[in-house]
Write the structure tokens for this entry.
Amino acid sequence: MIEFLISRGRSFRYAFVGWWFVIRTQRNAWIHAVVSIAVIAVALWLQLDAHDWALIIIAIAMVWTAEFINTALETVVDLASPEQHELAKVGKDVGASAVLIAAGSAAIIGFLILGPPLWDRLNFLF
């Protein structure tokens, strides 16, 4: 049992090391962080229901997951092909496209969920 707990602790530590690597090295991760915090703040202010929160959390997680997978892919491609190669470029471009698709989908989800109640709140101010 102790060995199991120690191995789980190591797994979490490795995961946090990977998370810190992405935050430290990927400029887009900072954009994702700022947008994630802003969306969460607006959602708190709007007092979304549980269903809407679930969709917002899934959308945020989708973007972060795509960014992490893209970073892993780019790192492995750089290791396997340190010199310029057309297939390495294709792999990196496809990984970046996955992040773009995730971010675009998350933005649409955010507008659909946050847009109407945010419009009502802001419209009230004017």
Observations:
- The domain at 28-125 is CATH 1.10.287.3610 (Helix Hairpins).
